């Protein structure tokens, strides 16, 4: 479980859209946002791992966030983007349909994740933020990219 | 405090080098090279360790080094003979000195209990010489030849000191006898700080100049606490060949601050060399050789200590450069320009430059195997001692350079194999005599470069493998079926099975049954096979073949189910395009390839990786014959073979994790990632369902951990 603790009262998130839902990630974890390019598939990989991509000489795995949350696979589209994010020493890419905005919210506006029935979602979403037309889900990057290990066991 | 501890670290680093120099010197003496320079080098190494240890108040180390040094000093002065028994004592003492240094580093005193025994042995050496004086070990000594550069530390003001004023004018006979003033001055520099002044006043004008008639003299001011006789000893061998005047002056207290900081050792060398240059044309060619010997004996080539991380960063960046270069080359090729177009030639230059840089950078990490080999001679001594055998180590190709990581990771397997060679390979003393062999067994350890790989062989002249016994044990331990009929090579390979041990009695050296399989795994993790050859009665030879570097690999680029992949060339024996009659179907799905009268299992790489070919994909036709560890030969089906090239290895583990059947990845010229396959894993997993394949992958991971 990743914590959101910081001294500042405002927290910044990058929000993006995939599988018809809005997600967001702590901006401090985001390294860059890249255009989609072809990946090399990995053998015996879980469905949400699309493959590996070359990021300036580093081999980084690309996760389809929609598949990870049990939604339909993100359709191939030229406007798809990859959010490059870092968790501890790991660098990964998240395939999403589009990046919406950078959201700056007061800490007290972040709400705890309501008790969801799906373990998968409850473990990977650490909170929700109400926005104009609904809400955005804050993802726990560490939990999202742990999937391969979990399916292996 | 931290400055103190970093100087301490420096001392241990220096000590390690000095211990290496010591081991090397002793090895040379052992080989029969008893000249003064070698003995001096050994003496200097021990002396410098003593000096450094004294600075850190490591009394146990100082006391032992002092006694050791006394013996060496006696040898240096030809007062005790350099014979094999004395050399043996010296060698054991050097080992013990290394232990004591290690103890001091870890702040334990595990080895100090043995010190007494070694001291007795050293005293015995001294006792053999009439008139040798054992000076008290706790006598104060100067830190004259301290190899640490401590000049940047505030030194306590010196209370008093003594100087020697030496006037030294060589006669022609001194040069004719092959002496070298520079060497004498260098020896003085070992005793303390020297200031050398060259007196040119007697130098005649050019018309009168006679090169055979020496006209130079030196005035030397030596600041040292040694006895006058010690200074006189320096000139012992040139007595009567020069005008010499030594005056001792005692300064009660240094009132005026020293105008210059005490001259560090390096500067002394410079000064000495300058006088060397100022000397008229060399009188004899012999002398010239001595001059060169001086710089050599003063220490190794200048080196730079660099944090390994920085080097690795550089290597990574160069890896990127190589990829970028091949990307540009590919783009330019796609333009289909005339071959003499400017950009084409520039790109070709770029390619050559990039390769040069890559080679140079790889050379930074390359290290000679010499220190590793030197450590092995100690292993041989210890193994021989504890088994009651007599053995010597003969090394070849010590200068062979290998990647640093390879050298480090080779230490454990090599130690094990050397111990095995002494413990199991060599016969007992009586056995050797009965077989009419030299009672002292020989272990040959050699390294050589051969076609992009490093070949390391460990050969003993023992009895050879007892194949009948090996088979018997394997059957007893149920490692093979009871009615198995194995040929010689297959029998030898049984040694590498986990849990195999041939020693009838379990010794504390080897023979705990964790032997050769661990060795093979460790070497396999470095990317190389281990092979055995044995001749009954003549000995056994283990051969390890290793890649020169772990950063690049020679691979065959193939396509599998539409994906471009790389297979390490070391695993591939040949590529085959089978005819219709060469492939045979067994059961529902298994295929066998018949080649030269043998049937070999065929594995579809795409299936092994869980990839499916598109429906309209043409039937793959190419087979790669690979040699695997567990399955012997195996044929892998791939769609197409493109070419052979060097690829930069990129780990998958950092950002993702281990993938079954894949050892690493690389970036191709077009920027796409290609997976580097592990033929062994693919061949082994071919029949396993997915879940089991994953267990196997996990096992693989554990195995890797165990090796690391």
What features would you describe in this structure?
- The complex is a heterodimer of chains A (153) and B (708).
- Chain A starts with 9 loop residues before the first strand and ends with a helix.
- In chain A, a hairpin with a 2-residue loop joins strand 4 and strand 5.
- In chain A, 14% of the residues lie in helices and 46% in strands.
- Chain A is mainly beta and 153 residues long.
- Chain A is globular and about 40 Å long.
- Chain A has one domain (10-152): OB fold (Dihydrolipoamide Acetyltransferase, E2P), CATH 2.40.50.180.
- Chain B is built from 21 helices and 22 strands.
- In chain B, the strands form 5 sheets. In chain B, strands 14-18-19-17-16-15 form a 6-stranded mixed sheet. Chain B has a 5-stranded mixed sheet with strand order 6-8-9-11-10. Chain B has a 5-stranded mixed sheet with strand order 20-12-13-22-21.
- Chain B has 5 domains: 2-127, Four Helix Bundle (Hemerythrin (Met), subunit A) (Up-down Bundle), CATH 1.20.120; 161-297; 308-367; 369-547, Heat Shock Protein 90; 552-707, SH3 type barrels.
- Mean pLDDT of chain B is 75; it is low at 129-159, 253-298, 503-514 and 686-708.
- In chain B, helix 4 packs antiparallel against helix 5 (112-127), helix 7 runs antiparallel to helix 9 and helix 11 (308-334) packs antiparallel against helix 12.
- By secondary structure, chain B is of the alpha+beta class.
- Helices cover 43% and strands 21% of the residues of chain B.
- Chains A and B meet through strand 4, strand 5, strand 7 and helix 4 of A and helix 11, strand 21, strand 22 and helix 21 of B.
């Amino acid at each position: 479980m990743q914590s959101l603790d910081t001294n500042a009262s405002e927290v910044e998130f990058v929000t993006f859209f995939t599988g018809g839902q809005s997600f967001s990630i702590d901006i401090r974890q985001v390294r860059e946002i890249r255009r989609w390019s072809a990946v090399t598939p990995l053998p015996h990989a879980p469905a949400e791992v699309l493959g590996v991509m070359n990021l300036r000489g580093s081999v980084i795995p690309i996760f389809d966030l929609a598949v990870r949350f049990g939604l339909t696979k993100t359709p191939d589209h030229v406007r798809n983007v990859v959010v490059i994010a870092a968790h501890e020493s790991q660098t990964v890419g998240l395939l999403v349909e589009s990046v919406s905005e950078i959201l700056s919210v007061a800490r007290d506006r972040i709400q705890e994740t309501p008790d969801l029935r799906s373990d998968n979602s409850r473990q990977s979403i650490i909170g929700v933020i109400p926005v104009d037309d609904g809400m955005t889900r804050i993802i726990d990057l560490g939990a999202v990219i742990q999937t391969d290990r979990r399916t292996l066991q | 405090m931290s400055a103190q501890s970093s100087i301490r670290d420096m001392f241990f680093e220096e000590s390690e080098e000095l211990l290496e120099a010591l081991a090397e010197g002793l090895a040379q003496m052992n080989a029969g090279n008893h000249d003064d320079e070698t003995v001096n080098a050994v003496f200097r190494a021990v002396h410098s360790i003593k000096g450094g240890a004294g600075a850190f108040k490591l009394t146990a180390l100082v006391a032992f080094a002092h006694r050791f040094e006394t013996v060496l000093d006696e040898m240096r002065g030809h007062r005790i003979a350099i014979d094999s028994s004395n050399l043996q004592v010296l060698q054991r003492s050097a080992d013990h000195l290394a232990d004591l240094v290690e103890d001091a580093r870890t702040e334990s005193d595990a080895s100090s209990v043995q010190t007494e025994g070694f001291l007795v042995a050293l005293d015995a050496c001294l006792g053999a010489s009439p008139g040798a004086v054992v000076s008290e070990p706790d006598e104060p000594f100067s830190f004259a030849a301290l190899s640490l550069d401590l000049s940047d530390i505030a030194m306590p003001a010196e209370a008093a000191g003594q100087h020697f004023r030496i006037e030294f004018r060589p006669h022609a006979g001194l040069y004719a006898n092959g002496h070298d003033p520079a060497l004498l001055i260098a020896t003085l520099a070992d005793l303390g700080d020297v200031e050398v002044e060259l007196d040119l006043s007697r130098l005649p004008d050019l018309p009168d100049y006679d090169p055979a008639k020496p006209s130079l003299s030196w005035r030397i001011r030596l600041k040292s606490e040694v006895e006058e006789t010690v200074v006189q000893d320096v000139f012992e061998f040139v007595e009567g060949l020069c005008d010499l005047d030594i005056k001792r002056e005692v300064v009660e207290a240094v009132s005026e601050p020293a105008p210059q900081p005490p001259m560090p050792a390096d500067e002394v060398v410079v000064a000495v060399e300058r006088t060397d240059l100022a000397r008229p044309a060399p009188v004899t060619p012999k002398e010239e050789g001595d001059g060169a010997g001086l710089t050599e004996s003063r220490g190794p080539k200048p080196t730079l200590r660099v944090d390994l991380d920085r080097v690795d960063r550089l290597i990574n960046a160069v890896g990127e450069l190589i990829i970028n270069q091949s990307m540009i080359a590919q783009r330019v090729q796609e333009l289909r320009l005339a071959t003499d177009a400017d950009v084409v030639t520039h790109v070709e230059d770029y390619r050559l430059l990039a390769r040069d840089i890559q080679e140079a950078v790889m050379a930074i990490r390359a290290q000679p195997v010499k220190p590793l080999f030197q450590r092995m001679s100690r292993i041989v001594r210890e193994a021989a001692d504890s088994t009651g055998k007599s053995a010597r180590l003969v090394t070849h190709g010590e200068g062979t350079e290998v990647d640093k990581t390879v050298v480090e990771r080779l230490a454990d397997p090599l130690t094990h194999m050397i111990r095995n060679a002494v413990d199991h390979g060599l016969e007992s003393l009586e056995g050797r005599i009965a077989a009419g062999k030299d009672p002292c067994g020989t272990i040959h350890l050699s390294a050589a470069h051969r076609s992009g790989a490093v070949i390391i062989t460990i050969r003993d002249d023992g009895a050879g493998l007892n194949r009948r016994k090996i088979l018997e044990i394997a059957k007893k331990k149920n490692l093979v079926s009871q009615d198995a009929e194995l040929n010689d090579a297959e029998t030898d390979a049984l040694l590498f099975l986990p849990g195999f041990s041939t020693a009838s009695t379990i010794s504390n050296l080897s023979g705990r049954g964790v032997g050769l399989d661990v060795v093979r795994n460790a070497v396999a993790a470095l990317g190389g096979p281990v092979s055995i050859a044995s001749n009954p009665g003549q000995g056994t030879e283990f051969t390890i073949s290793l890649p020169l570097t772990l950063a690049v690999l020679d691979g065959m680029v193939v396509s599998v189910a539409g994906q471009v992949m790389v297979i390490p060339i070391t695993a591939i024996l040949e590529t085959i395009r089978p005819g219709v009659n060469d492939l045979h179907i067994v059961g529902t799905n298994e295929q066998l390839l018949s080649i030269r009268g043998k049937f070999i299992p065929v594995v579809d790489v795409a299936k092994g990786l869980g990839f499916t070919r598109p429906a309209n994909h043409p039937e793959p036709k190419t087979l790669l014959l690979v040699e695997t560890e567990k399955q012997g030969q195996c044929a892998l089906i791939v769609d197409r073979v493109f070419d052979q090239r060097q690829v930069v290895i990129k780990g998958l583990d950092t950002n993702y994790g281990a993938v079954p059947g894949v050892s690493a990845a690389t970036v191709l010229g077009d920027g796409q990632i290609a997976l580097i396959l592990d033929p062994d894993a693919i061949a082994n997993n071919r029949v396993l369902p997915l879940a089991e394949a994953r267990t196997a992958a996990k096992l693989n991971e554990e195995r890797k951990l165990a090796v690391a």
